[in-house]
Amino acid sequence: xxxxVHIEDDPANRLxxxxxxxxxxxxxxxxxxxxxxxxxxxxxxxxxVLVDLNIPGLDGYEVALRLRGEKSLEGVPIVAITAExxxxxxxxxGCDGFLQKPIDARTFAETLARYxxxxxxxxxxxxxxxxxxxxxxxxxxxEEKVSELSRVNARLRDVDxxxxxxxxxxxxxxxxxxxxxxxxxxxLHDEELGPLEPQQKRALGSVQDCVTRLRQIIxxxxxxxxxxxxxxxFSHTSYDVRASLVRALDRYRGALAIAGxxxxxxxPERDAPAVGDAERFQRAVAQLLDNATKFVAxxxxxxxxxxxxxxxxxxxxxxxxAGIPEERQARIFDAFYQVxxxxxxxxxxxxxxxxxxxxxxxGLGGELTVASPCDVSLGGGAFRGVSFALSVASVAPVQLDxxxxxx
Length: 407
Prior knowledge:
Radius of gyration: 32 Å
Oligomer: single chain
Order of helices and strands: EHEHEHEHEHHHEHEEHEEHEEEEH
Strand order of the largest sheet: 2-1-3-4-5
Largest sheet: 5 strands, parallel
Structural class: alpha/beta
Strand content: 15-25%
Number of strands: 14
Helix content: 40-55%
C-alpha cells in the first residue's frame, strides 16, 4: 500500500481519484490548493504526489518546483494531471509524469503503480529554456501577490487607525458625563444633600457600585487607546512602593470579601522608596486583584508578596484558581483578548486589564509575567493556580519607548 498526496481543488475529481486508488489499496491524502498541498506533502512523506496544474494558491508548476527543492522528498515521483497544462513544461519543472484529463478509470491505478515502481518520463531537451520561462512567470505571479498584499496591508493600517480613533473618541465622550454622575451619586449616598431612608441608601449604594465599575471600564479603554497611540503619560516623582501597594490592597479588600476570597499578604514593614508614577502602579496592582476576583472561585485564596530586587521591587500576586491553559498564556496580555470570549462566558470584563498592567509595568521600568501552574508559598500556605510577577524599577525611565510599551 502506498501513501499518495492528491492536490486538486475540484471535489468531484478528488472523490473519483480517492475511490480508484483506495480500491487498489492505496492511502490517499487530499489537499484543495497548492499551499496546503506543499504543507501536506512535506509533513506526510508520501510515496507519490499527484498534482493538478490548475489549482489556487500555488499552481501545479510552482508546487512541483517547490517540492523538488525539498530534500525529504528526494526521489518521490510527482505526477501532473491536467486538462489544459503543458507536458514539456511539467517535466521541465520537476514532474516525473504527465496525465491528461479525463483520466481512464480502468487503467489509472496501474499507471500510477508504474511511477511507484520507478518509471519516469524523460524531460525535454530544451528543459533549461522551459525552466527560465516558468521562473519568469512565477516571478511575475509573486510580484502580483506582493502588490496585492501591500494594498491589503495599507487598508488594514487605515482600518486599525480608524478603530483606535473610534475607541479614543467614544471613551472620551463617555468619560465626560461620567464625572458629574460619579460626583452626584456620591453626594447623595453620603447624604450630603439630605438624609435618606435606609431603602433609598441601599438603592444608591447599588447604583454607586455600578457607576464605579463603569468608570473603571472607561478608564481602562482610555488607557488602551493612549498606549496604542503612544500617548500614555507617566509622572516621575518620588513614591513608596510599599505604601502604594497597601493602598491598592485596601481598596480591594471589600471586593475580595464579597467574592468570598481570603487575602494573604507578605509585605515587609520597611519603606520601599522609588521614583515613578504611584497612581499608575496602584492601577496595575488593582488589575491583577480584579483578575483574581473574577477567576478564583469563592472559598479560594489570593496571596500578595513584596520583594526587593536588584534595581527595584517585585510584587507577586498568586491565587488558588483553576489556572490558565499553557497555549493561551502567550496571549493573555494582548488587549481585548479573553481566554473565554464567547457570548455565554462566565466572567465579565473587556479583556484589557492585563494588557494595561503589563504596559504600566514597562512604563515603570519593569515587566509583568505569568506562571500557571505556579508554585508559590505565602503565609504558610501553597498557591498552585496562577501567579503574576509585577516588577518595577526603583527609578523609572523618564523617556518612555512607546513601541516597547505596546509590544
